[in-house]
Amino acid sequence: MATITDLSVKTIDGEDRALSSYQGQVLLIVNVASYCGYTPQYQGLQALHEKYSAQGLRILAFPCNDFGSQEPGTNDQIKTFCSTRYSVTFELFDKVHAKGAEQHPLYARLTSGAEPTGDVAWNFEKFLIGKNGEILGRFPSRIAPDSAELIGAIEQALAA
Q1: Is the CA virtual torsion 42, 64, 144, 155 positive or negative?
Q2: What are the pLDDT tens digits along the chain (160 aa)?
Q3: Which pLDDT value is given to residue 38?
Q4: What crossing angle do the helices spanning 41-52 and 148-159 adopt, rounded to 10°?
Q5: What are residue 111's phi and psi, to 5 degrees?
Q6: 25 exposed, middle or buried (CB, 10 Å; 0-12, 13-18, 19+)?
Q7: Which UniProt keywords apply (predicted)?
Q8: Which residue in 4, 33, 36, 98 is the catalytic one?
Q9: Pairing of strands 16-18, 8-10
């Protein structure tokens, strides 16, 4: 089973973060963008964070400009947008490539280890990661953060 615990990422402030530091927690990894039709999903992601963080859910948002150039901003601009527009308090990370020749190793692992395999299709695609770092599920952009399908999968992962 594919896991992500041996990988490291950079926070939006440029600090290295080992994904192994999230051992024992459930992760929802999302590629985000500020100028997308799905951008209002930030609100739903924040609601999930507020409802489930005390139970061990961590939302990890990775800005990405791969889809329609809908995330052109700098990390500072993205941070400001997220905090002022959507009051985001979940974790934001350095802008990455979710597909293509410069695909981040995290997304290489996610897209080859989750069903269905293959490239991320658009902004706000979600990957659910279990407490031991295994990839539990993949949810396309159209699956909203407040959808019964996603909430059910999160609650099941938290209960495991």
Answers
A1: negative
A2: 678 999 999 999 999 999 999 999 999 999 999 999 999 999 999 999 999 999 999 999 999 999 999 999 999 999 999 999 999 999 999 999 999 999 999 999 999 999 899 999 999 999 999 999 999 999 999 999 999 999 999 999 999 9
A3: 96
A4: 30
A5: -75, -20
A6: middle
A7: Oxidoreductase, Peroxidase
A8: 36
A9: antiparallel
Query: What string of H, E and C letters represents the secondary structure of the chain?
Result: CCECCCCEEEECCCCEEEHHHHCCCEEEEEEECCCCCCCCHHHHHHHHHHHHHHHCEEEEEEEECCCCCCCCCCHHHHHHHHHHHHCCCCEEECCECCCCCCCCHHHHHHHHHCCCCCCCCCCCCEEEECCCCEEEEEECCCCCCCCHHHHHHHHHHHHC
**CA dihedral sign, ordered 110, 115, 118, 122:** negative
The residue behind tokens 């939006």 is: 12
Identity of residue 61: A
Global pTM value: 0.97
Question: What type of residue sits at position 32?
Answer: V
36 given a catalytic annotation: yes
Residue with tokens 């395999």: 117
